[in-house]
Amino acid sequence: MYVVAVYDVEADRTRLFLNFLRRYLTHVQNSVFEGEITDGDLEEVKGQLDSMLEPGESVIVYRMSSEQYVSRTVYGDDPTEDSQFL
Amino acid sequence: MYVVAVYDVEADRTRLFLNFLRRYLTHVQNSVFEGEITDGDLEEVKGQLDSMLEPGESVIVYRMSSEQYVSRTVYGDDPTEDSQFL
């Protein structure tokens, strides 16, 4: 399946989520990840997120059965084309 | 169609995008909007974004032909349940 994940966490904790989610998905914008993921890996991500998140923080995961059901357009400067993009 | 829009703009300009996107979509997380939108309104949004965005800023729009193709899960505290959520 194809997912888009968006996190909203305390500024000093973004690195933690960046490093974690990067193991499963592609970092495409400041707090946005996307990519193909297996059911097993998604369960792993969910379990880990539940233990990582603190009060007031959230991650939204949008799931589509396949990438064919979503089209994606970037307006402005695509961060992934910037070599400085972490 | 159903869209998810995520913006990454300078901190002092988020209000501008928040107020603009709120006219078309539902604010669901810090820099995330989603909802049903007509082709006409999406064209309007695109045109406006192109003129609003400055170098280094971006908005990603994920389009699905219908909400039935996407399922959404919130981990942690869902911002929309927080009465303080702007």
Automatic annotation (TrEMBL), chains A, B:
InterPro entries: CRISPR_associated_Cas2 (IPR021127), Virulence_VapD/CRISPR_Cas2 (IPR019199). SUPFAM superfamilies: TTP0101/SSO1404-like. Its EC number is 3.1.-.-. Its cofactor is Mg(2+). It is an enzyme of class 3 (hydrolase). One of its GO terms (molecular function) is RNA endonuclease activity. GO terms for biological process: defense response to virus; maintenance of CRISPR repeat elements. Mg(2+) binds at residue 8. Homodimer, forms a heterotetramer with a Cas1 homodimer. This is CRISPR-associated endoribonuclease Cas2.
